[in-house]
Each structure stands twice: as structure tokens, then as C-alpha cells.
Design brief:
This protein is mainly beta. Helices cover 6% and strands 42% of the residues. The chain has a 22-stranded antiparallel β-barrel.
Length: 959
């Protein structure tokens, strides 16, 4: 259903020097000699269709070998790739509880979102996660891919649509699974956090038989299980980033159950209570309150903030369990042909609740649910005009209204699961066949595959408000708790949904030298054909569709078919100058055609110095979530109702305080007239090897994307939403006398939603540099080997371009309406230092992310005094002046230490400490990309700081 192409570069790993650390492919790698040292081995490198006798490439490629992965100390691929220096704004991590694609992880090269980074498996396209990022962008969930199944990961950091098609705007991540294996390897590992929660257990077994050269075949399997325990917010609420009380920091106390001017001193607390809004003195008169469980709370304790509710339901890190299986067989058919078959099943199960506050009773009314089915919006489904209780009326079992006036019920709903809880089981299956060989002078690569991602989602913690109030009014529901399971199921039903994404593909590539001599070398040519069919069936859940409960996740139903032809030409027209031209023509049945050319060069004037550069056009095809039968609801920033709180003050006479500083819902609608996003990208780099063992590269990049597909809210500065409102009903209205209110009927009803369609609007341009330095040297007197690697990226500029106006976002929170307000730091770096001697191998890795401002000029928010509320939608400083120190998110540095020691030739001990110095996550008041309003850190950039110091110990036995 979504996008499309595929191309084959079945990328063969850029061989780094033995034991080299992750970094750009060495500029002057030697040719790889075959056994006997005669004929150079030719390989295909990611970013090209044509095999080569060495791994020098004009395009910047970073390689992570299986050894690098093991030495990282990480326990998942998602954690590993998140630390890439080239990963930027818009990255998606599992710590973002409120994500549309909750539970999954995606990578955003150059900060251009997960939709502009193409992830391949063995050089082929993979079905995307059925739940799109921001309900829009398709991506491959890297959290589902197991460590032990990976041979290497290649990161192509330049545009590559001319070979790979749609989505390869910022680059390509090619995850190469194991191709063959001999012997048996057993591994087990256990890890735990210093501050509680997050216990991790991992075990695997891999085994293979057959020598491909001697026996003509190899067959293998690998099984891996991993269980990661949850980290609750309550296990970190002693740290500043998880402390809801901001008073000592110049802000508000937003602790659950604490009455403040933000909630008009009326808020659910640890005991339900009845309130008489017509009584004299309002909230300042204890006689207007009746607490239904006086053993927990009374008026004096309530006003003193002593009836607070601790957040024991929110997740810093969700509980996750993985079970993975990969089987493969490679068979030599004859001297020239080889068939490789693989089948895999990667399963990830996680539980999260989107960081939502507990479900509470509706004190005055319930505006109902807005449903969106097949493009038809229906508002106020199952609305309840009044939830007030008349004098003497039942308020559930054993309680009646004691007041002479209508009363409100405040309190959290008991006996139910945490609000918006989802148990998500994602099963990724893949069957592939790759046939390689030679015929009539052509090197041929043919491939076919079937891929599928199925998500089984089980929901709980949702409320059927009509059933709830029927049960309260007839006296069967006990508002204090202890209700029967049958009644609880009627009030908070458990329901499920199945969402699927499939992609089947066929690829064919042929390459050969068409002229043995063309200038200073041969003229090589490659051409290929690609076909894929993609379907996405992610419907709304049954109870959501009828409005019985609130919306669960975005829905998308659709399909697409893509066919493409592509070609590459490579020559050495003059000595030491390599030039390549490539192009691709794609046809989509959803919108039409795209043509994307590219060119690159590498000039090596002397043996140890080179200059390289690339130019590429790219595109991202609109997908069914944007043009098909799809829809979603979202919020991101806070506003003041233009009618009910026009001046933004909760105390101005006539204003409705609850309409001030609130995050309105938007309805995301599709647009069948969308056109593809189009890009131009450039790189220009230097390659230098000043001495043996020292390799350095420095690459400048510039990417311009036009015709962006964006939601109008938050991306079009001229956008004025058309707000759809409910009917006016009695509500608290400010009197103008301090914080006192009176019940009245305002001029208009509350905002139910605003429409925000997808549009093609403006563009994004980013440019910067990335440096990779690697050094390896042997110490004297057999003292061992020291190796070092540095990968660093600096963003000069990241601009949104709308109506000819350029808005600089580098070093700010923007664009906050994309991907969870991850922030846009200018600098990221990773430094690795290793030491090896005999059985001992020690690796230390330092990851650095620079600080950034919390302003977001893309929203027009350039005043540091309001970024928490206006950018992040958080009430930390609502109604106050935000202190200047929260205008900037500090830099963040973590250090990981990994040790491996061979106890015997077969048995290896491994120990690791992640976040060695226990650096805490810095405060980011302007992000909503975290575990809800209870936390104020950036989960995409600073998650290790919330997890804290993590220890692990493991053993590996191979025979």
C-alpha cells in the first residue's frame, strides 16, 4: 500500500581492516586477494550496481561489522543505530510513548525524518511497519531485527533514488543478514539498571553445516530471544526530568491530584469527591466538597496538595520481548551460479500506554467521540449532555448527592487498566531467494521475496462513557472501586485489532564491462528491473469505528504497484579519475512517473589522497496514508481558544479557563492530489591516508527537498484552522476576581477538532559536514593493538522554505510538528577507543549530542518565555514567564564500556556498562516526544540518560 522500489545492490560489506572500528569505508583499501593471492575478489558495494576490485567508493559509506555490533555493548539494533552521528531530527525511539507507531523504532538520516531514509534488508526492500510515523511516514522497524542475525550494516550517506527509488533521499541503511555459518555458537547475557527496572535477558543459538567450496552448500539457523523489563516513571521520579512539581524551578505544580489555578482548583485526586458548583464561596468553601473516601483525603489535605497521585503507570521504557528465527541455505548450482534461500520470523511484543494520565470521571458533560470512517467525520458520537447529579440522585453504589444543587463528580475511574494501554505484538516474516551467476559475459543477480509485518494489538484502559454513566446512575457502579469483572468489562472493554503491511518484490540486475578500454580503464555497465506490490491493511478497531471508545491508532487501507528500470555506467576516462552515471525511471499506479538521475566521481591525484563528490535527484512517492483511505487524530502544541480565551488569561472576566493553554485535537485528512516530494542532493569530500593505519574522510553534504508532503497545521504559517465546536453548555467562567469562577453558558461551545489536510508545501534544505577518522597501531614489544575512530557530524543549516521565506531551524526544537519534537541539534559525534591484546578486548564508546534551543521558528515561536507551552504543549510554566535557562537544552554525553575476554579458545566472557558515568537526561521543556507530561526529557536523543547506568554480563561458547 505504501511505497515502493527496490533495487538490488545486494551490497557486499566494505571490508575494513581486520578489527577496524565503525567508520567510513577506508579511502585507499587494498584490493581483496583471493586464495593464492592472484585474482582480486570483486564485490558490490552499497550505492552501486557494478562490482569492483576494491572498496574505495565515491559515495560516503559507513560500515558496522558484526564485531563492531558486539563491541558496542548495546542490546538492540535500534539502540545501536540511534547513536549514529548522521542520525538526526525526526528519529523515532521506543521511549516516545505517545508515538503513532508506538513500540517501533526508525532512523532519520540528516534529520529529514524516517520517511526519507530507506532501510533495506540484504539490499532489498522490506514491508514497512503498519503504523506509520506521525500516521504518515512509512518506515522499517529496526527494533525487530536481532543482533545475532546480522552480518553487517552499511550506511550510505548520500541520495540514492537513482538506484533504489523512492525514500532514498537522505541515504540508505542496508542491514545484511548472515549468508552462511559453520559450527555452533551459544550465547547468553543478563543486564540490569542501577536505578531499578529494565532487567534485560538475551540468549541465542546459531549453528550451520556444510562448506560452500568443499561441499557445495551451507545451511544454518540462528535463534535469539530477548526480554527487556519495563522502567516505570515512578522508578525515576526522584530525578528532575520526571518530577512534576516545577515550583522550585519557577513553574507550576502539575502533579496529579494537586489543585492549582491551572485546573481551577478542581482536579481528580486519590479519593473521588462531589462538588457543589452553586454553593457560596465556590472552591474556597469546604462545605462545597464531600470526599467519598475520607481516610485518603479531606478538604484541608486536598488544598494543601496532600492527596496527590503518583504516576505508577507511565513508562520510561516499555516492557519488550523478542523471539527471532533466521534460517538460510546457499547452494552452488555449478561453477558460475549460486542460489541463496532465507526465511526469517522476527517477533516483538511490547506493552505501553502512550503516557496518558489516568481516566477520570467527566464532571459536567461528555462531548462524545469523533469518528472518521471512509472519509466521513461524525462528531459527538455517544455524547452525554450532562453528567451532573441532581439533589438526592444516585452517584453509583451507596452514594447520593447530599447537596441542594446539582453536583459534579471528580475522581479517577477505578478498577481499569492504565489509560490507553496497548499490548503490541509485531511479527515480521520474510522469505527470499537470491540467484547470482554469470551468463554470456554478464554478471547476473536475480531476486524475489515476500515480506510481511503483522501487528496484533490488544487494547485496554479505554472507557465506554455511556455505559459508565448508565451504571453510575442506576447505582450498580461503585465510584470508589471494587466493581465486578463483568461490570468493569462493560465500562472498560478489552478489544483487539490486526494491522498488516506486505511487500512482495522481484529484482533483476545484469552488469558487465562493455569496453575493455575506455580512456584509462574499462567501461562498465549495469542495468536492472524492479517490481513490487505493496498492501497496507491497517483498519480502525471495531469499537473505535463506532465511537464506543476513544480513538486508538491511525488507520490506513490501500495498496500500490511499482515498476522501475534503472542503469549505471562507470568509467575511468583519465588516469585516477573514476566517474559514474546512473538513472532510474519509476512508475507508480498511485500517482504516475518519476525519473531520477545521479552522477559521482572520485579523483585520486596521488596514492594517499582523493577527492570525491556526488549529485543525485531523489523523490518520495505519496503513500496511501497520505492519498488513500486513511485518517488520524493528533495534537502537538497548546493554544488559547480564539473566542473563549482570546487574551490567553485564565482570570479575565468572561474567559473560560479550561479553554486557555490547551492542546486542541486535529483531524488528519488525506489529499488525493498530492505530488511526490522531490530532492536534489550533493556531496563533496576529501579522502586522506597520511600514514599507514590512519584513514580520514571529510564530506560536505547539501540536500534540498521540494514539494514536501506535510500536514497543514504546524507547517503552513498562514494556516488558520476552521474549528468545529460542540454546543455551548454550562461550564466554569472566570469572574475577573482573582481565580474565582462561576457556572455559566459561554457564547460558543468547546473546540472539538480542526481539520488539517496533507498539502504539498515549500521545502527543506539542510547542509553540513561529516568527518570520519580511524587510526590503528600496534604497540611495541607485543603490547597489544590500540584502535580509535571518530565519526562527527555538524549541521550548518536546516531551513524550512515556505512561500519563499527561509526559516532557520538548525540548533532549535523545530520542526516540532514532525516526529515527536525530537529537537534539531547541530552537532553529533561518536568516538570509539579500543585495546586488544591476546584474549583481552576492551572498547570504550563516547556519544555526544550538542545542546539546542527550545524555540521553534517553524511555528512562529521564537520567545523563550513560552516554549514549554506553545511548542511542547506542556503546562510547566503556563501563565508564568518561563525562566531563561529553559530556553536551551544542554548537551548530552554518554560513555559506554565493553570488555571481552577469551577464557578458552571456545569460551568468551563479555561485560559491559552503558552510560558509565550515569549521566542524567537534560531537561527539554519543548518536546512532547517523551513518556507524557510526567517527564520532561527528550526520549529520542537522551533516552540513555533516563535509563541510567546499565550493567550486563554474558558468555559465548563456540565450537
Amino acid at each position: 500500500m505504501t511505497f515502493k522500489l527496490k533495487s538490488l545492490p545486494f551490497a557486499v560489506a566494505c571490508a575494513l581492516a581486520s578489527g577496524a572500528l565503525a567508520g567510513s569505508a577506508p579511502a585507499f583499501a587494498q584490493t581483496t586477494e583471493a586464495a593464492g593471492g592472484s585474482t582480486p575478489q570483486r564485490v558490490v558495494v552499497t550505492g552501486s550496481l557494478i562490482s569492483r576490485a576494491n572498496t574505495e567508493t565515491p559515495t560516503p559509506v559507513q560500515v558496522l561489522t558484526s564485531a563492531d555490533i558486539q563491541k558496542s555493548g548495546k542490546t538492540s539494533v535500534a539502540e545501536l543505530l540511534t547513536d549514529l552521528a548522521s542520525n538526526g531530527a525526526g528519529t523515532l525511539g521506543t521511549g516516545f510513548a505517545g508515538a503513532f507507531a508506538n513500540g517501533a523504532s526508525g532512523i532519520s538520516l540528516r534529520g529529514l525524518t524516517v520517511g526519507a531514509t530507506l532501510v533495506l534488508i540484504d539490499g532489498h526492500r522490506m514491508a514497512g511497519y503498519p503504523l506509520s510515523d506521525d500516521a504518515q511516514r512509512q518506515f522499517v522497524d529496526v527494533s525487530s531485527i536481532p543482533f545475532d542475525a546480522i552480518e553487517s550494516i552499511e550506511v550510505l550517506k548520500s541520495g540514492a533514488s537513482s538506484l533504489y527509488g523512492s525514500d532514498a533521499i537522505a541515504g540508505v541503511i542496508n542491514i545484511k543478514l548472515k549468508k552462511n555459518l559453520t559450527g555452533t555458537r551459544l550465547a547468553a547475557e543478563y543486564g540490569d539498571t542501577q536505578h531499578g527496572g529494565g532487567k534485560t535477558k538475551r540468549a541465542s543459538i546459531s549453528s550451520g553445516i556444510g562448506d560452500l567450496d568443499a561441499d557445495g552448500y551451507n545451511a544454518f539457523f540462528t535463534i535469539e530471544t530477548r526480554k527487556q523489563g519495563a522502567i516505570k516513571v515512578a522508578e525515576r521520579d526522584n530525578f528532575e526530568y520526571a518530577n512534576r512539581d516545577w515550583r522550585s524551578r519557577g513553574g507550576n505544580n502539575i502533579t496529579l491530584g494537586v489543585p492549582t489555578n491551572l485546573n481551577n482548583y478542581l482536579t481528580p485526586t486519590n479519593s473521588p469527591f462531589l462538588y457543589n458548583p452553586s454553593g457560596a464561596g465556590g472552591v474556597d468553601n469546604p462545605a462545597n466538597f464531600v470526599f467519598l473516601d475520607p481516610s485518603k483525603c479531606n478538604y484541608t489535605a486536598y488544598r494543601a496538595g496532600q492527596c496527590a497521585v503518583r504516576d505508577t503507570f507511565g513508562f520510561i521504557q516499555p516492557e519488550t520481548e523478542n523471539v527471532n528465527l533466521l534460517v538460510g541455505m546457499t547452494k552452488k548450482l555449478n561453477d558460475n551460479w549460486e542460489l541463496a534461500l532465507k526465511a526469517s520470523m522476527f517477533q516483538r511484543e511490547s506493552t505501553n500506554n502512550r503516557g496518558a494520565t489516568p481516566q477520570a470521571y467527566s464532571p459536567t458533560s461528555f462531548n462524545g467521540v469523533t469518528t472518521l470512517n471512509n472519509g466521513v467525520l461524525v462528531t459527538r458520537v455517544n455524547n452525554i449532555p450532562s453528567t451532573l447529579f441532581a439533589p438526592g440522585a444516585r452517584v453509583g453504589a451507596g452514594v447520593t448527592n447530599p447537596f441542594p444543587n446539582n453536583a459534579r463528580l471528580y475522581g479517577y475511574i477505578p478498577d481499569i487498566d492504565p489509560n490507553l494501554t496497548t499490548n503490541n505484538k509485531s511479527t515480521t516474516t520474510r522469505i527470499s531467494a537470491d540467484l547470482t551467476g554469470s551468463a554470456m559475459g554478464w554478471d547476473v543477480q536475480a531476486a524475489a521475496g515476500m515480506t510481511k509485518v503483522k501487528v496484533d494489538a490488544n487494547y485496554s484502559g479505554y472507557i465506554n462513557r455511556r455505559n459508565l454513566y448508565n451504571a453510575i446512575n442506576n447505582g450498580s457502579w461503585n465510584v470508589l472501586g471494587g466493581n465486578s469483572p463483568t461490570l468493569v468489562d462493560a465500562v472498560s472493554p478489552r478489544f483487539s485489532n490486526t494491522l498488516e503491511s506486505t511487500l512482495n518484490y522481484i529484482d533483476l540486475v545484469g552488469s558487465r564491462e562493455i569496453l575493455p578500454s575506455f580512456g584509462a580503464g574499462p567501461l562498465a555497465f549495469a542495468a536492472g528491473y524492479h517490481w513490487h506490490k505493496r498492501e497496507q491493511n491497517a483498519p480502525a478497531s471495531s469499537l473505535t469505528a463506532i465511537g464506543a471508545v476513544a480513538n486508538t491508532s491511525a488507520f490506513t487501507i490501500g495498496d500500490e504497484t511499482n515498476q522501475a528500470i534503472f542503469a549505471e555506467l562507470r568509467a575511468t576516462p583519465v588516469k585516477n579519475v573514476e566517474v559514474s552515471l546512473s538513472s532510474r525511471y519509476d512508475h507508480y499506479d498511485t500517482y504516475g512517473n518519476s525519473f531520477t538521475p545521479a552522477a559521482n566521481f572520485k579523483w585520486t591525484p596521488v596514492q594517499n589522497f582523493g577527492i570525491r563528490g556526488t549529485f543525485a535527484r531523489g523523490f518520495r512517492a505519496p503513500n496511501p496514508a497520505e492519498v488513500g483511505n486513511a485518517g488520524s487524530f493528533f495534537t502537538f502544541n497548546a493554544i488559547n481558544d480564539p473566542i473563549l480565551c482570546a487574551n490567553g488569561s485564565r482570570t479575565t472576566a468572561g474567559n473560560v479557563p479550561s479553554a486557555c493553554g490547551f492542546a486542541p485535537p486535529y483531524v488528519q485528512t488525506t489529499n488525493p492530489d498530492l505530488q511526490p516530494e522531490k530532492s536534489k542532493s550533493y556531496t563533496l569530500g576529501l579522502i586522506y591516508e597520511p600514514m599507514r593505519g590512519l584513514n580520514m574522510t571529510l564530506d560536505y553534504y547539501k540536500i534540498r527537498i521540494n514539494n514536501l508532503v506535510v500536514t497543514q497545521a504546524g507547517n503552513d504559517p498562514n494556516f488558520v484552522p476552521t474549528w468545529v465546536r460542540g454546543p455551548a453548555a454550562p461550564i466554569d467562567i472566570a469572574t475577573g476576581n482573582g481565580t474565582t469562577t462561576t457556572v455559566g453558558v459561554p457564547s460558543v461551545g468547546p473546540i472539538l477538532y480542526g481539520l488539517s489536510p496533507y498539502i504539498n508545501a515549500g521545502g527543506t534544505e539542510t547542509h553540513g559536514i561529516e568527518a570520519d577518522v580511524r587510526y590503528r597501531w600496534r604497540l611495541a614489544n607485543d603490547g597489544g593493538t590500540v584502535s580509535a575512530a571518530l565519526s562527527a557530524a555538524h549541521t550548518f543549516g536546516y531551513e524550512n522554505i515556505i512561500g519563499g521565506e527561509r526559516i532557520q531551524l538548525a540548533g532549535t526544537q523545530g520542526p516540532s510538528s514532525v516526529g515527536g519534537a525530537t529537537g534539531n541539534p547541530k552537532d553529533r559525534a561518536q568516538f570509539t577507543l579500543g585495546y586488544n591484546r591476546g584474549p583481552l578486548d576492551v572498547t570504550a564508546t563516547v556519544n555526544y549530542t550538542s545542546g539546542f534551543s527550545t524555540i521553534d521558528p517553524a511555528l512562529g515561536e521564537t520567545d523563550c518565555a513560552t516554549t514549554g507551552e506553545h511548542v511542547g504543549g506542556r503546562a510547566y510554566f503556563s501563565g508564568l514567564v518561563q525562566p531563561a535557562n529553559y530556553c536551551t537544552v544542554p548537551s548530552f554525553t554518554t560513555t559506554n564500556l565493553n570488555l571481552q575476554y577469551k577464557l578458552t579458545p571456545n569460551l568468551t566472557l563479555r561485560a559491559a556498562v552503558l552510560n558509565l558515568f550515569d549521566r542524567q537526561a537534560p531537561i527539554d521543556v519543548a518536546t512532547y516526544g517523551n513518556a507524557g507530561a510526567s517527564t520532561s526529557y527528550n526520549a529520542s536523543l537522551h533516552q540513555p540518560g533516563a535509563v541510567g547506568r546499565f550493567y550486563s554480563l554474558g558468555l559465548t561458547y563456540a565450537f
